[in-house]
Amino acid sequence: MTQVTVRRIDERWVLKAKALAAKKGVSMNTVLVEALGKGLGLDQARRTNGLEKYAGDSPGDFGPEWEESMEVFNTIDPGLWK
Q: What share of residues in the chain are helix, strand, coil (percent, to 5)?
């Protein structure tokens, strides 16, 4: 990565970038980098750590083997609740 300085920016752009950054809860730099990438047609795919393939939110997402191995967690030991 490198740093650049951009001069003679329209004040409306700065105000819009600040407002968008505040709305999104990110830095103005983040907003500007994303906008520049999109404007140049070089916006990269979202960065990922590769773990999204393991994130499921409903039964059956990982297949029957997974569901079978997780069945032990659906059993309540009455002795623990005395």
A: 55, 0, 45
